[in-house]
Amino acid sequence: MNHQEELDEEMQELNEDAEEMDEVAEEMSEISSRIDEQMRELERRMERLGERIQSRVEREVERALRRAHSEINPEEIGRQTEAIVRNALERLDAFEARINPEEIGRKAEEAARAATERMGRQKPFRWAPHRPHAPELPHRPGARAASSEEVMTILKMVETGKITAEEASKLIQSLEG
User: Which of the listed residues 30, 42, 71, 115 has the most CB atoms within 10 Å of its CB?
Assistant: First the structure.
């Protein structure tokens, strides 16, 4: 395998690794969005429940007051009102007990941990592969070697998608004469 083929193979591996990392990041973003939406929905439901309870208590108080004016004594009205409010608060407590923010947070952490573990199973990221016996390129009269800074600049252009690996190879060859 010649130097160019090795470089092309490494660039292909880098592109595959970058694509997989992008997929994992997108999954994490989707999970975060779903959690945020679920939290907003829970807040809306809690608000609606509070409004319904308040409305129900107000209706019951009005009904109790109407009855009090006609036939029930004030002490009885107080007891009934207390029972209604206590019942509504117990129902609210029971509803809140079913909503477990720690559980939601734990599930989010588990999803993030799983994504991180998947990223950890990927091959290590290397810019320059180890080549103990790289072939010597023929030296042309008047030719110069491309500087490492020039090569890094070209590789960064490949990484950002501005040029292809093949175009990078041609650029490096043209720099070397």
Answer: 115
